Every structure is written in structure tokens, then in C-alpha cells.
């Protein structure tokens, strides 16, 4: 790596930050970026996935700062495997796994991912909630929020609430509401210079001085939404002290109810030289890119975690009845007062959701689990519903092997033929199709024929 290839002024700043290790940092640019995946623990345990992947000949190595992250060789191409479409893992830069791993989240928590797109951190937070609690995933960009929504539904998140709002608007609806908040703030991206050389050009147009005011605005909105006793994890993928320790100092000075909670030094992490308790990730010290993280706690006696939601008027019309009848084939228990209708769409509400009056005018892309729609007086189940179920939770399912051609054909939207044994075992009607024991989507059986119901927007290209 030649110093002249870096933005003007950046090498000098990094020399001051790194001292004698600057040359090692510069040498890291000659190493290829690492590829990694993070196992969706709402689907299966890391060990179960390793067993599954080992049977397919995958060679994986653990990411040391999270128990469900694994490096893989670029030749593996895990995005071209049925397991990816079953939501078994999320492809994520290894260092980007650190913020969600460092925020303590347990089932029942009320969690906000404030700058959530495209969903790498939200999918991990949803997995750790394990279907309980409440997750609000927000991104101010509606187009990025749609990508976030797809990833959450692909990973089977059933208790999520996806919005596209600025922090100050959310704070009006959720004052001191969340006991866990993640702010992976937009930044100048210095930590990504190796992985994405295009970041070096954008850096010249928008450097740290452009981002600091925005970061403070976002973080201040997050503090207003943090419940007493709650924890806020602030992170960036940049090295600049103004965007990192500088923002944390500003928060501590502006909000005296906050205190810094020291983060653990996981393998490869470095201590912040200027603000003890914060951590930094450098590409010359670990297999990953650059990151910063700090954990703040809000003073208070409790974490304000009620386990009930505001009152809703549950859906009681014909479409809702048909949805309940359809779900009677599920082996999962469904609570009748959590069905909610918005026009022709039916949802299953998460606990902790504010009332419609409080949410009026909020740009919501998803309100809980999208069950399906009413079409011509009939209930049509959604792709999101299929992904939230396990095949063994549905009365009639077809389990394909990831090694057989029919799995890919199904994902491409093609109709399938059934074997005699499968035809005899399955009644005509709606079938949940899965791969290696994990759900993919719906199909309709007629005799020895399956009409494909896989969502067109998700199909294998």
C-alpha cells in the first residue's frame, strides 16, 4: 500500500493515533479483506450449523469476538446455497459483528436498532430476543429500510417493528421506552478503506467534520428513548477521534445521567488510548476491518420493561377468522387478541407495541409479523409467515434436501413433481416447503404436483 493512495492528511492522523504500529496498519492493506457469516441462532445453534456445514465440506474458522460468527473462504459462495434462502446465516464483515455482540440483549428486552439497514445487526438482535420482547429496527432511508425488512423476514423475525423516521420523530413516540439501544452511526468510513476503496473517494467529499453533528443528533435522540437503567451501544466504522471518543465525551457532558460502562477486551480488540472503557478494532490486529464501540448506561433504578403492550382492537372480521382457521394447522399457539388488520393485510402484533394513537403518522414498513392478505374473500399467507415457522410446526410440510435439484428449482419459482411416497403422505392444499429441516415458503399440492408459492421478489437469480 502506497501512502499516496490514501486521502490527504489521513496518513498523518493515523500515525499520530497508532504510533509505532502505523507501518503494520499500512501493511494490512496488502492483505485481502475477510469474508464471514453469522449463524442465525433463532434457527439453530452454532454447533449444529458447524455439523451441518461440515457434512457439506465447508471449512469455517471462528470469529473470536462472537460465538456464532465464522470466517469462510471466498470460493465457498454461501449466498448461492439453499441454506442462505432458509435464513440460516447472515453474510457480514467480521468486525461489523462486534456492536451487536457487545450489547447485552436477553429475551423480553425492548430493543431499538436506530440506524439498522441493511439488517446485519438487527437480525442478530432479533435472534437473541428469540421471539420475545420487542425490536424496533429503524432507518431514515425508506429504500434502505425495505432491504432491512427483507433481511428480518428472511431470518424469521416475528416480533419486529420496522420504521423509517429521524430519531427526533421516534423519540416523540418512544420516550424512555427502550432498555437496549444500538446506534451504529453513519460515519466517514475510515475503517473500510481496505475493504471498499470507493470509500476513499467519498471521504474527500464528506469527511469527519461532516458527520460529527449528525452523529450527535442521532445519539441525543437515542438517549431520549433510553429507559432508566438501560444500555446504549454507540459504534462506528471509522478511526477519527472526533466521531468516536469525541461524541462519547459530548454525550457524557450533555446528559449527566449517562455513565460509561467499560467494554470487555475480546481477542484482537484494542483499548482506546484517550477514553478508557471504549474499544477499537484495527485491521492490523485482527481479521477484520476498523471499528469503534462504547457502552453507555442511563442512571435509574429499573429498566422499565413492561411485558404487556398498549391496547389494540383485535381484528374480528371474516379475513381474520380465515387467518385463524388457516393457522389452526400450525402446532404453535396463537393469541387471539394479537391479530390486527390494516386494510387487506393481517398482522400478529408483538408485545410492547404502542397504541395506534401514539403511532399515528409514523412511517411503518412492518408492524409485527405479516401473516398475509385477504384476496377475493380468501386468506393468502405471506412469505414472512412461512419463514417464521419451522416445518415441524406445520401440519403438512415437504422437506427437501439441499443436495437435490428440486430445492434450487423451488427457489427459482418452478413447479415441482412429487414422488409416490410424498404424494401419499401429503393431502391436497397448502404445503410448507423446507430444506434440510428449515422453512423456505409455501406451495399448493394437487395430486403429484406442487404449484410454487415462493415469493417472486426473493427468487434465486
Structural topology:
Blueprint: H1 10-18, H2 22-27, E1 35-39, H3 46-55, E2 60-62, E3 69-72, H4 82-85, E4 89-91, H5 98-102, E5 110-113, H6 120-129, E6 134-138, H7 142-154, E7 160-163, H8 167-173, E8 178-184, H9 198-205, H10 208-225, E9 226-236, H11 245-254, E10 258-261, E11 270-271, E12 279-281, E13 291-298, H12 318-327, E14 339-342, E15 345-348, E16 364-367, E17 369-375, E18 378-381, H13 383-388, E19 397-400, H14 405-411, E20 416-417, H15 420-425, E21 429-435, E22 438-446, E23 449-452
Parallel strand pairs: 5-6, 5-8, 6-7, 8-9, 19-21
Antiparallel strand pairs: 1-3, 1-4, 2-3, 7-16, 9-13, 10-13, 11-12, 12-13, 14-15, 15-17, 17-18, 20-23, 21-22, 22-23
Helix pairs in contact: 8-10
SS elements, strand count: 23
Structural class: alpha+beta
CATH architecture call of the largest domain: 3-Layer(aba) Sandwich
Strand content: 15-25%
Instruction: Specify the CATH class of the largest domain.
Output: Alpha Beta
How much is the average pLDDT? 93
Uncertain stretches: none
Amino acid at each position: 500500500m502506497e501512502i499516496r493512495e490514501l486521502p490527504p492528511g489521513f496518513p498523518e492522523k493515523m500515525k499520530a493515533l497508532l504510533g509505532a504500529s502505523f507501518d503494520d496498519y499500512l501493511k494490512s492493506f496488502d492483505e485481502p479483506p475477510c469474508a464471514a457469516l453469522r449463524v442465525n441462532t433463532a434457527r439453530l445453534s452454532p454447533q449444529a450449523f458447524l455439523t451441518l456445514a461440515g457434512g457439506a465440506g465447508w471449512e469455517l474458522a471462528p470469529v473470536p469476538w462472537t460465538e456464532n460468527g465464522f470466517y469462510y473462504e471466498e470460493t465457498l459462495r454461501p449466498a448461492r446455497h439453499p441454506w442462505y434462502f432458509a435464513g440460516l446465516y447472515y453474510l457480514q464483515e467480521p468486525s461489523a459483528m462486534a456492536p451487536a455482540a457487545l450489547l447485552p440483549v436477553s429475551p423480553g428486552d425492548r430493543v431499538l436498532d436506530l440506524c439498522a439497514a441493511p439488517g446485519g445487526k438487527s437480525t442478530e438482535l432479533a435472534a437473541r430476543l428469540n421471539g420475545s420482547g420487542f425490536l424496533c429496527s429503524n432507518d431514515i432511508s425508506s429504500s434502505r429500510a425495505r432491504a432491512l425488512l427483507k433481511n428480518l423476514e428472511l431470518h424469521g423475525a416475528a416480533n419486529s417493528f420496522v420504521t423509517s423516521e429521524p430519531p427526533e420523530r421516534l423519540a416523540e413516540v418512544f420516550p424512555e421506552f427502550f432498555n437496549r439501544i444500538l446506534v451504529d452511526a453513519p460515519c466517514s468510513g475510515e475503517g473500510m478503506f481496505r475493504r471498499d476503496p470507493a470509500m476513499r473517494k467519498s471521504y474527500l467529499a464528506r469527511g469527519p467534520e461532516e458527520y460529527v453533528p449528525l452523529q450527535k443528533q442521532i445519539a441525543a435522540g437515542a438517549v431520549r428513548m433510553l429507559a432508566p437503567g438501560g444500555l446504549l451501544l454507540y459504534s462506528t466504522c471509522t478511526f477519527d477521534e472526533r466521531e468516536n471518543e469525541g461524541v462519547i465525551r459530548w454525550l457524557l457532558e450533555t446528559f449527566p445521567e449517562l455513565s460509561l460502562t467499560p467494554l470487555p477486551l475480546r481477542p484482537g480488540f484494542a483499548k482506546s488510548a484517550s477514553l478508557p472503557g471504549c474499544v477499537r478494532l484495527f485491521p492490523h490486529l485482527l481479521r477484520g476491518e476498523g471499528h469503534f464501540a462504547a457502552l453507555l448506561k442511563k442512571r435509574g433504578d429499573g429498566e422499565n420493561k413492561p411485558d404487556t403492550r398498549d391496547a389494540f382492537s383485535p381484528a374480528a372480521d371474516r379475513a381474520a377468522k380465515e387467518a385463524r382457521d388457516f393457522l389452526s394447522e400450525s402446532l404453535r399457539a396463537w393469541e387471539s387478541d394479537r391479530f390486527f388488520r390494516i386494510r387487506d393485510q393481517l398482522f400478529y402484533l408483538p408485545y410492547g407495541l404502542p397504541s395506534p394513537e401514539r403511532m399515528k403518522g409514523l412511517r411503518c414498513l412492518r408492524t409485527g409479523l405479516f401473516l398475509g392478505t385477504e384476496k377475493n374473500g380468501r386468506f393468502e399467507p405471506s412469505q414472512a409467515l412461512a419463514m417464521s415457522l419451522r416445518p415441524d410446526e406445520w401440519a403438512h410440510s415437504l422437506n427437501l434436501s439441499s443436495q437435490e435439484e428440486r430445492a434450487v428449482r423451488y427457489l427459482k419459482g418452478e413447479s415441482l413433481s412429487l414422488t409416490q411416497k410424498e404424494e401419499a403422505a401429503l393431502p391436497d392444499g397448502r404445503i410448507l416447503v423446507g430444506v434440510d429441516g428449515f422453512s423456505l415458503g409455501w406451495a399448493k399440492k394437487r395430486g403429484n404436483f406442487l404449484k410454487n408459492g415462493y415469493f417472486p421478489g426473493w427468487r434465486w437469480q
